[in-house]
């Protein structure tokens, strides 16, 4: 198995700890474990970290956090980011360090969205929150000091799912212009017969764990084929150009590979990069792996190019 030695030790240590995996715990406990794990990681200082409240169309309040590095340009482009966690776990705090690194690497304003989580809020609430957040960011460009004509969406894992689904929902909305989508090992299908590589079972993710996420996210199993849940089944024509980051030893790597092929077939410009020996969750962990730093540089370069190319969508 080509798993990076440090990643292999991480997996071995997790097994030796005796702590049950997320899907074997109550959702509340799985959330606490994730927050505790990520809170221990160092995160870089940044010039601006400001909490926001985004009003949802149903009257709810969506927490968000805006980041800017010291060299960010006023009135510049913005990346709206959706955190991973299988639609059940994760938060603004768990992905605070990642959002900071994205803001520093890109020089863009980054807005991290704390969409509502299942099972308290099942599909399509997370999708609605993601769409409402992008619409709000676009409509409040002056207040946020960003350029509404240069919006990118992005996310990791289930957040990548929300990012590309949001791009699809808004593709014909003349009030919002999404120019790029950054998808980091995105969830693109509920069909685990095609979207799961058994060779890497247990490397951060288990097949039963993915099913657990689906079971808690969906109000009914029939929703698994809704293109807002499984974008691999969607009409992808007219989506903005995409950047896709993949980890070689990720059991859901096939979902990203299939989505890249589907985007290409639909005529969507896409560039993908797979990182050898890496596992699901590596993006943003620059302090642990050179590959994570390389992936961040790749993503930043792609976003910068997309935001400066006047011909880009």
Account of the protein in words:
This protein has 313 residues and is α/β, with parallel strands linked by helices. Helix content is 35%, strand content 19%. It has nine helices and eight strands. An eight-stranded mixed sheet has the order 1-2-4-3-5-6-7-8, sandwiched between helices. The mean pLDDT is 96.
Per CATH, the class reads Alpha Beta
Largest sheet: 8 strands, mixed
Distance between the termini: 40 Å
- What is the CATH architecture descriptor? 3-Layer(aba) Sandwich
Helix content: 25-40%
Number of contiguous helices: 9
Question: What are the defining features of this structure?
Answer:
single chain, 8 strands, 313 residues, alpha/beta, 35% helix
Q: What is the compact description of this entry?
A:
The chain is α/β, with parallel strands linked by helices and 313 residues long. The chain contains 9 helices and 8 strands. Helix 3 (96-106) crosses helix 9 and helix 4 (125-139) packs across helix 6.
What is the strand and helix layout of this fold?
Blueprint (H helix, E strand, L loop, with lengths): L4 H13 L9 H13 L8 E8 L5 E8 L7 E7 L13 H11 L2 E5 L11 H15 L1 H4 L1 E11 L1 H12 L8 E7 L22 H11 L24 E6 L5 H13 L4 E6 L14 H19 L5
Parallel strand pairs: 3-4, 3-5, 5-6, 6-7, 7-8
Antiparallel strand pairs: 1-2, 2-4
Helix pairs in contact: 3-9, 4-6
